[in-house]
């Protein structure tokens, strides 16, 4: 595959001189490789592979070798970029470094090390955008693989954004009549794969939205079902005016009592208030 050209060359070509020992890298081999090797060793005990058949252990070993080569290249190029002062040489080193990061990112996707792949591809995209034209096909390729990394990391909105950027670049390249037929054929195949990834991501995103809506509806329904019944209003209660100090108010009679119509001698006729003896 043309995608892993850098990796293939680095694996197949023997170094002209013995490689010097390199300081330990900042990153460790992908966990999937180590786990895969252990599981395959246990599963392959007592089984003889048929001639010409590639064993799972061979696949894990290939990934491990590729990672070691690429990670060594990462360390070397990082040091050279830090020490380089010439701008033209820096651009060349950045381009080489971006190729290494692209291969590391794709290797991370193959071995389910999504976070590591995403980090490598993000740095790869940054370097390529600095040294390459805006509509270079390798930038479109980086957007494509970065979109896959975002999709696997459940960042679906960002994945769609990366796929859309890749589509725009490829569409722009296909509009150029000077592009060879072979390149056009490759780009059209990539465009088909892009459309498939976009549809797949949109379907996942739609499913997530529907699940969220169903969860909200279910929670609302449960809340309504458990809502307490309205409290009945209290019965009418007669409120007695207790006055300012709590004593009941006395009302003056408008008509005299028929049984005691005669005036009371103990009453003051001017005030009609009973005297206190």
From TrEMBL:
Classification via Gene3D superfamilies: Tetratricopeptide repeat domain
One MF annotation (Gene Ontology) recorded for this entry: histone binding
GO BP, sorted A to Z: CENP-A containing chromatin assembly; DNA replication-dependent chromatin assembly
The UniProt record lists the keyword Repeat: yes
Cited Pfam families: SHNi-TPR
Protein name: Tetratricopeptide SHNi-TPR domain-containing protein
Domain Tetratricopeptide SHNi-TPR: 98-134
Lineage, uppermost ranks: Eukaryota, Amoebozoa, Discosea, Flabellinia, Vannellidae
Region (Disordered): 1-59, 248-277
Gene Ontology cellular component list: nucleoplasm
Bias-annotated ranges (Low complexity): 256-270
Polar residues biased stretches: 1-10
Keywords noted in UniProt: Repeat, TPR repeat
């Amino acid at each position: 595959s043309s995608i892993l050209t850098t990796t293939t060359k680095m694996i197949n070509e023997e170094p002209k001189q013995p490689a010097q020992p390199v300081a330990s890298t900042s990153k460790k081999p992908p966990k999937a490789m180590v786990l895969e090797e252990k599981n395959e060793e246990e599963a392959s005990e007592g089984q003889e592979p048929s001639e010409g058949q590639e064993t799972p252990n061979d696949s894990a070993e290939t990934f491990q070798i590729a990672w070691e080569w690429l990670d060594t290249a990462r360390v070397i190029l990082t040091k050279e970029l830090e020490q380089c002062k010439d701008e033209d040489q820096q651009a060349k080193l950045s381009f080489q470094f971006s190729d290494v990061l692209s291969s590391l990112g794709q290797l991370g996707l193959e071995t389910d090390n999504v976070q590591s792949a995403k980090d490598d591809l993000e740095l790869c995209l940054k370097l390529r955008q600095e040294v390459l034209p805006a509509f270079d096909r390798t930038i479109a390729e980086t957007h494509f693989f970065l979109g896959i990394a975002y999709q696997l990391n459940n960042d679906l909105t960002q994945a769609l954004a990366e796929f859309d950027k890749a589509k725009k670049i490829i569409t722009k390249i296909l509009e150029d009549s000077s592009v060879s037929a072979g390149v056009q054929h490759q780009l059209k195949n990539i465009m088909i794969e892009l459309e498939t990834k976009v549809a797949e991501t949109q379907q996942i995103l739609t499913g997530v939205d529907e699940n969220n809506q169903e969860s909200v509806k279910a929670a609302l329904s449960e809340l309504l079902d458990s809502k307490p019944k309205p409290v009945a209003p209290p019965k009418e209660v007669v409120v007695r005016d207790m006055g300012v100090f709590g004593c009941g108010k006395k009302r003056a009679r408008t008509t005299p009592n028929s049984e005691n119509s005669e005036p009371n001698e103990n009453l003051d006729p001017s005030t009609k208030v009973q005297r206190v003896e």
